[in-house]
Amino acid sequence: MKVGCSLNFVEAVVLCLILLPIGILADMPLRFRKDGTFKILQVADMHYANGKNTTCEDVFLSEEPYCSDLNTTAFLERTILAENPDLIVFTGDNIYGFDCPNPKKSLSDAFAPAIASNIPWAVIMGNHDDESSLSREDVMKYTATLKNTLSKFNPENADYIEGFGNYNLEVGGAEGSKFENKSVLNLYFLDSGNYADCCADRDFPSPGLSEVHRIVYGYNWVKNSQQFWLLQTSKRLQQEYMADAEALKLRVAAPALAFLHIPPPEFNSSMLSKKVGVQQEGVSGPSVNSGLFTSLAGAKDVKALIVGHDHINDYCAELFGLQLCYGGGFGYHAYGLAGWARRARVVVVNLDKTENGWGPVQSIKTRKRLDDANFTAIDDQLLWDLEYA
Ligand SMILES: *[C@@H]1O[C@H](CO)[C@@H](O)[C@H](O)[C@H]1NC(C)=O
Ligand SMILES: *[C@@H]1O[C@H](CO)[C@@H](O)[C@H](O)[C@H]1NC(C)=O
Ligand SMILES: *[C@@H]1O[C@H](CO)[C@@H](O)[C@H](O)[C@H]1NC(C)=O
Ligand SMILES: *[C@@H]1O[C@H](CO)[C@@H](O)[C@H](O)[C@H]1NC(C)=O
Ligand SMILES: *[C@@H]1O[C@H](CO)[C@@H](O)[C@H](O)[C@H]1NC(C)=O
């Protein structure tokens, strides 16, 4: 038997034995820790531009002379150091394209603390990332080449999909447990585009034009093709997971989280549960409802949809079994409120402790970290628990 160019059977078997464990590790770059936890840091709306010469928005007048993009960098470094997350998720408007003469440099500088930390990180785009000389496609392509990122341009075998930066990540169970080769937590990333269809595929020659499109047509929406891909992927993952349901005594499929930039209209539903966190501005989503919420709720595995975009909203509220969460604005070169600290969302997922060691996911909790003197943690809450599933 000949394999490849010049391997005989014995050589091929030896090579396979060498590559097998490497292959398994490469397939599961994310996994729960030995203490049964997995922590995600969400960074929303950095609006990074040129570093120290980029001014801050909505800080006190007395703070303006000493404030720049470097404050955003410092906040990111501080949060990574204190939280030591297992994954950092940037939920769009990572750079503020209009102000970026060199978008590749802005992107590299914006993500630099994540790259330096050696912690895996993932990105989706917002509506401002492509407002420079780099097209939306190229921003995502470039981002996916940066060190330690798990961001992907788009899924393989789904060339029908619209947008750039739609992908999923799997988080393996604790090493040494019965779930070590299974994805016990699934993460979906979707591109919510920029402005409504009239202008979604073009680059804006001037900031003014994009602003006109936004006002006239509103924001873009998550397309049917993206929802179809998510539903197919979710179904496949649930089937794979539940294949050993009896042996592993599983009642429900592995939970999932979805990340997006622009909130769907349901974030403003009158049926929302009591909000944990605040709403200080309207929900500025698309002017049509593309059905994303019903797709996510219908998928059954998705327990929370986590977005950015509206910087001074930072609430989570539940609607028909799905938690809808804002991150709250992180970046200083982005609108905010002077005196209302820039913030980040932290999501902590815990495994179930069984008599045979770590089991499937038991609970999903969240809180926020403020960039204030005490680095205050607020709004601790439970998003999902296996008991209630
Ligand atoms: C800030 O830096 C960028 C990139 O180096 C440069 O293009 C821009 O002109 C600078 N702006 C100011 C106000 O100095
Ligand atoms: C920005 O960083 C500078 C330098 O560390 C600091 O003096 C200033 O207080 C920070 N500004 C804000 C608004 O956090
Ligand atoms: C996981 O896969 C590895 C490599 O194939 C294997 O050695 C191990 O027994 C598997 N663990 C479980 C719980 O199936
Ligand atoms: C949100 O809902 C409230 C009523 O619950 C309504 O007054 C407001 O216009 C809505 N805002 C947006 C942006 O949809
Ligand atoms: C920080 O904590 C100290 C000690 O608890 C408290 O006195 C102070 O008011 C806090 N500062 C802020 C900005 O919350």
From TrEMBL:
The keyword Transmembrane applies. Residues 38-312 form the Calcineurin-like phosphoesterase domain. Keywords: Membrane, Transmembrane, Transmembrane helix. It comes from the Eukaryota. Signal peptide: none annotated. GO terms for molecular function: hydrolase activity, acting on ester bonds. GO terms for cellular component: cytoplasm. The chain crosses the membrane at residues 6-26. The keyword Acetylation does not apply. It holds the Pfam family Metallophos. This is Inactive purple acid phosphatase 29. It comes from Quercus suber. The lineage of its organism: Eukaryota, Viridiplantae, Streptophyta, Embryophyta, Tracheophyta.
